[in-house]
Amino acid sequence: MILRMDRVAIDLPKPKNPSPNDAAAIQELLGGKFGELSTLMNYTMQSFNFRGRNRLRPFYDLIACIGAEEYSHIEMVSYAINLLLTGTTKRGHDPVPAPLSNATDARNSYHFIASGQTALPMDSMGNFWTGQNVFNSGNMKLDLLHNFFLECGARANKMRAYEMVSDPTARTMIGYLLVRGGLHVVAYARALEKLTGVEVTKLVPVPELSNDAFPEAVQFQKQGLHLKLFSFSPGDYQQAAQIWTGTHPEDGQPLEFVNGAIEGVPAPDLDEEPQLNAPGAEGFDPQMFMDVAKRMGINPNHPSKGQF
Amino acid sequence: MILRMDRVAIDLPKPKNPSPNDAAAIQELLGGKFGELSTLMNYTMQSFNFRGRNRLRPFYDLIACIGAEEYSHIEMVSYAINLLLTGTTKRGHDPVPAPLSNATDARNSYHFIASGQTALPMDSMGNFWTGQNVFNSGNMKLDLLHNFFLECGARANKMRAYEMVSDPTARTMIGYLLVRGGLHVVAYARALEKLTGVEVTKLVPVPELSNDAFPEAVQFQKQGLHLKLFSFSPGDYQQAAQIWTGTHPEDGQPLEFVNGAIEGVPAPDLDEEPQLNAPGAEGFDPQMFMDVAKRMGINPNHPSKGQF
Amino acid sequence: MILRMDRVAIDLPKPKNPSPNDAAAIQELLGGKFGELSTLMNYTMQSFNFRGRNRLRPFYDLIACIGAEEYSHIEMVSYAINLLLTGTTKRGHDPVPAPLSNATDARNSYHFIASGQTALPMDSMGNFWTGQNVFNSGNMKLDLLHNFFLECGARANKMRAYEMVSDPTARTMIGYLLVRGGLHVVAYARALEKLTGVEVTKLVPVPELSNDAFPEAVQFQKQGLHLKLFSFSPGDYQQAAQIWTGTHPEDGQPLEFVNGAIEGVPAPDLDEEPQLNAPGAEGFDPQMFMDVAKRMGINPNHPSKGQF
Amino acid sequence: MILRMDRVAIDLPKPKNPSPNDAAAIQELLGGKFGELSTLMNYTMQSFNFRGRNRLRPFYDLIACIGAEEYSHIEMVSYAINLLLTGTTKRGHDPVPAPLSNATDARNSYHFIASGQTALPMDSMGNFWTGQNVFNSGNMKLDLLHNFFLECGARANKMRAYEMVSDPTARTMIGYLLVRGGLHVVAYARALEKLTGVEVTKLVPVPELSNDAFPEAVQFQKQGLHLKLFSFSPGDYQQAAQIWTGTHPEDGQPLEFVNGAIEGVPAPDLDEEPQLNAPGAEGFDPQMFMDVAKRMGINPNHPSKGQF
Amino acid sequence: MILRMDRVAIDLPKPKNPSPNDAAAIQELLGGKFGELSTLMNYTMQSFNFRGRNRLRPFYDLIACIGAEEYSHIEMVSYAINLLLTGTTKRGHDPVPAPLSNATDARNSYHFIASGQTALPMDSMGNFWTGQNVFNSGNMKLDLLHNFFLECGARANKMRAYEMVSDPTARTMIGYLLVRGGLHVVAYARALEKLTGVEVTKLVPVPELSNDAFPEAVQFQKQGLHLKLFSFSPGDYQQAAQIWTGTHPEDGQPLEFVNGAIEGVPAPDLDEEPQLNAPGAEGFDPQMFMDVAKRMGINPNHPSKGQF
Amino acid sequence: MILRMDRVAIDLPKPKNPSPNDAAAIQELLGGKFGELSTLMNYTMQSFNFRGRNRLRPFYDLIACIGAEEYSHIEMVSYAINLLLTGTTKRGHDPVPAPLSNATDARNSYHFIASGQTALPMDSMGNFWTGQNVFNSGNMKLDLLHNFFLECGARANKMRAYEMVSDPTARTMIGYLLVRGGLHVVAYARALEKLTGVEVTKLVPVPELSNDAFPEAVQFQKQGLHLKLFSFSPGDYQQAAQIWTGTHPEDGQPLEFVNGAIEGVPAPDLDEEPQLNAPGAEGFDPQMFMDVAKRMGINPNHPSKGQF
């Protein structure tokens, strides 16, 4: 079970140049074979399906808490896409001037037909994410090897998406994910080390280019975010700490296990796009709801809670 | 962002007759077009992509907290599948006696080749879940109508899965989901009512057969679980309560909004299946980890926390 | 545009042994790569897309009227599947005795979960028909060659389905389709002959086994149904007759062009399956509708019209 | 069974600016999840598979005759695409000057490689239509609810396609479909009303923007085309009239049931594209066929018949 | 079993204008339904699966040796794509200047994200090749008819790809494939002739435009490459010669069977693309390997062998 | 380019109990995500696409020659499937006794409808192989890591297929592939070692169960087949020897590089299945061909050549 918070991991700047084709490229990081939906669903299913977890609890806990973090990653990528798409067609209610005419030449028409200029679980070519992307043999050594490979592949994709798109919204998000995904690379390498004694962490970075080449990633590394494994739990999964020990293979700083989630910031509000009837409901009277709420004793200001 | 707990919603009895074909059928409720992955990903993406959420906060909160609950549903279905598959092949390390020979005639060979006799994100025919199952037009009225239809379709599938499989593991899980999914049907109907004034809740139940025909569902209804909308959040999404008002359309009892998650029980441990090398790692020494843990001050008993 | 009639091509006997797995096999003839949906959609799209139809009218007319006939073929296959599935689970309203328990071991679970024991646009493995099965290069010679090959492939599949299933419902339907599809083989061969002078009809039959080996087909051949090309139109597509000339390559009888459709019989009524809530609506009062109808002057007996 | 006519529903103007990318966008209305192939195949299969049709004849008839109309809709969308593609590459027989060089940058290369600059059963991203788009639970209430949702989703897609493309060919076609599809929305809502008593028609329009905002749709509404349910049959399906009663929920005008099809116009001829060898067959002598036809007594002028 | 040679069939000129969209178009010839992977896998599987090969040896040998040649065709198409992609983004190690920014607007983003600016087994729309493209009924007449159709369809695609792309790299490759694929068209037509007596070779060319219209193809015809069927074997498959008899249907020159492979040229080396870390491994010291090689007696110059 | 030989790697015993469901299971090793088609196409494409091959020749040569061997693996799996399917339906020409009635309950109906009781490029659930299974980032370290993981995953699948099927045909084939695939695991591990210095070979075996547990594998190991890397080339790819150095990580025996292919045995002849018209062509006169051959000087005994 999960508890969801109305907060996202980091604050994203508004795009300098909203762009449908930039958004289309970033979709690879959401719904691609190596996108965040793949990491989320791999680790989630692996944790549900883990056999012998009492005997191998630290490995189970590691997979579970990394899986929990991935939820915040699909969230970050989705928000980056949404921001890149907001305002890219002409706002207004009248269909006659063809407010969506831009979309005809855009790479991904689903953003304008199937969604309201927002993210969908698909990749950079508009192919939808599929459960075939989940690998879960049940053999822990093989599953950990897979996860290590998956994170390296995901890292390569992030690097290339960064090289395609220069907008700060996308790059801030990618910088963050390079750091956190880089931490996951090391975590699975460390798990293999604990299991086999082979120094798998020495294989990193894969590909060879370091995260240090990405200024936005460097900012997050300065906050130590490449060192802290969060439990993303109110109190469970603490034996992951038994794997997350020692120092980082690239800069030698000490690794740290943190109970709970990253603090985060409130989830951003997305502007309405009336030409898409998104969200529509224009005659709706929120005041009526407010009045009801007051009578029910609900705080209408909807306070967002912080870290546990 | 989420916080994950090492707990599941309800306690599942062990199967009377573990059965690969029963497990194969139950997969429809996990990875089918109307399975729990579809409800999870629909509401999750709709919440990330919601435009104008400040103006329409109660609807956003409703979708977000139902989406958060769905995580516990993919978990319950997965555990039911896993329990139905556990022990269905002959245990042992020696491949020569063909310990998996049962699997050759089973409907779903992926359970034995691609996974370690555990769930995968696929349906009852072994077709994998796809992101095409996510509908998110961005028009709130249309999205709510979709969600209402999706929950009705999901309900029909649960009813049929119940009629296919008589094992108590599966039926307890389905009974729970019929009640909770039934609540989601009413919730989206109520949201449409609040938005349009049309009495959509009077359409339920769809199909016409009531949950009262399912004894396991009746047990959960007696606990009032068809009346309580949980926030599945440490404190957010409370304006959903402004929609979840009045009485239940079928039995007239008052609806109730509950902050937090259902209490749940600890996640069950799944037996090892050595013939699948699941999990393998047989030479691994957990004591070594325990010793490290003690030195690190981690409680090796891995206490599971309750409801917030 | 079409006009639809509430009639089907031939009368199908009730199954001797209704069987989910027989029904599953017959799905290949509906939604398989070489199924009737493929022939229907190939010729329909080819006719919409035909360039230069004034210059090449007889070829256009031929493709159009064969395409129109294919609608009656998807109908016949669907009804055969529906009859084979009717009554294969235990009738009743109570879910507790697991009335669908048969379905757990059936090859195709979609018949019981996604449909109400009826046909879906999928093949014998439950894979859904796809528009990729449509070939339409726009080059008439290549498209005709494709159509000739497609009909030969479809014929091979029908022969094999016949050899798999011995129930008279299925075999009557297949016998009919072998004859009509066999006619389409000859029609496209004849079109290639008219276009190129190469005696393509001499290649038939492909595979080598004659329709004469199938007693049910022989019955339809005795009615001359392998000789008559119907326009399946109230009056259009008559220049197809310019291609459908001469004699049949296998028995030497004269070919004949017929304006209109085969006479057919009323569409059969399918029994209700209450355990699937199919159709449900049990409290509905048809008398009320009858009374309204009488006042509106509609004949409530719903007379089915014959051939034009 | 059907009778096909060599006529289409309405006359389409020639495009002002033929455009491959406009054509690519319009494909969504043909082969998209909410395209006309989906409505056609949903209602066609639902009618073949309808259980208990004698008891529920008006509902069966309604689904059957709407299904029959959808054939004319896939036809209209296909012709619009074909017209938008005609002439978009350089005409001629010589491949050396790269007459298809435009196509290299077009969004949908299948239009130029797999077809002869014509429509294929795919969506705006070139993904092919699939039978997974057919929903048919067999429970009539659930199927009607699906159909109502499907038509609303289809309406949203048409509105967005209209906003993407300003060419009159596309917009005339979309205006027509908005009116006829809008009628189908009301028809399924009315069916749910007759079945349940819930005033579902009051939910329309979904999305909230009225058809009145689309000038081309307004032209067709002036002809009363939003009020007339055609049987698209020579005489069957008349009990659909028992559902199609009362007045239109948006303008209060009386609804009308019409026996037969809309009158329509002759199907347009599409220009040849020699650079695609479409149709090729350049040495073919139609005069030879004409002579044969005269001897056979076939009217070579191929008269198109009107409404029944 | 195969023996692979580090040689390719012909020498390809460097592109005049490397172009991602040209490369994207050419992918149809690799991974499209009618691409070289389809011909390769069709004939390969048909040869593995051939029943009764002793009785029908010449046909088996024909299919086997054409299948062997197709390997060199997937190779040629892949190299053409690779050359068209080489150098299309900005070379360098620093990600900050967005060296892949070109790729954001390219038709096929997989070339830049999933591969290192190289070919993948997909078509011109980025849809991946699938085993569904293999047809193998086991009935030899039907399989030969399929192969004849497949080669004609493949020829049409090559002609259209030629018309889309004018770069000499692509056109040289296509000219070669038109000649060799054209030979395969004739070979399967001849096989059908030997089997049935029907003069199928008289149907060629399909489409009607001759290879003589393509100057690059004419160059290869001048070398007689449309006349020579190679065994692509060190000594097997010689009975294919019994089918490959007589003269070419288009120019009347005598057909010739050749033992072994076309001579070919060394496989080209592809430039590194450091911005993609392709191949990376920059600190690797090849000299170390050279030294080892010398001690092992391996010729470090890696001599490529010629024709057998 | 390749030269194909009419020989297969090893001699397969005839099945003791031919079985469609055993054959269906073995399909996973041909067309599954981790099947031999995946290894073949991964290494083939990676070798075509290798950038900087002059600098990194030994790695290129390694991938190329392993890729060449994989062709013999798809061949072995296909023949095993074909033998398991031969004779599983009733032989004869008459369709009336339903000779394929067995097939109706078989897990994979494509074996009887789409093929002539032979292999198709699909997996154990009848899902077709797809080019999405090819990974080729262009970064050599990442690609080698992928290949290492792919081979480990393939090994797990072989182990499980072995445990499902006890027929000697299947197990002999699997034993061979476990040994050769096991060699490929070590080869990619060794390549990573040469590149990075990390002792990746110490991770093997993955899963933990040794090949020694499989008696058929042990037989092939006794022949040293786990030690010999063949070039599968008449003379190229010899620098692979620079990677394939040292001793085997499991038994410490010296590794050996061998120029050319394994010797192999003649490809087996598959019995005809007349009830499938496979191959049909029953009136065909091979003597006629023999006579022609003699006049052409072709040896009609079709001698199979041995190793180069």
What does this structure look like?
Chain A has 308 residues and is mainly α. Chain A has 8 helices and 5 strands; from the N terminus they run E-E-H-H-H-H-H-H-H-E-E-E-H. Chain A has helices at 20-31, 36-48, 57-85, 110-113, 140-164, 168-196, 215-222, 286-296; strands at 2-4, 7-8, 228-230, 256-258, 265-266. In chain A, the strands form 2 sheets. In chain A, strands 2-5 form a two-stranded antiparallel sheet. In chain A, strands 3-4 form a two-stranded parallel sheet. Chains C and D meet through strand 1, strand 2, helix 2, helix 3 and helix 5 of C and strand 1, strand 2, helix 2, helix 3 and helix 5 of D.
Give a topology summary.
6 copies of one chain form a homohexamer.
Chain A: E1 2-4, E2 7-8, H1 20-31, H2 36-48, H3 57-85, H4 110-113, H5 140-164, H6 168-196, H7 215-222, E3 228-230, E4 256-258, E5 265-266, H8 286-296
Parallel strand pairs in A: 3-4
Antiparallel strand pairs in A: 2-5
What's the short version?
With 308 residues, chain A is mainly α. Helices cover 43% and strands 4% of the residues of chain A. Chain A is globular, with a radius of gyration of 21 Å.
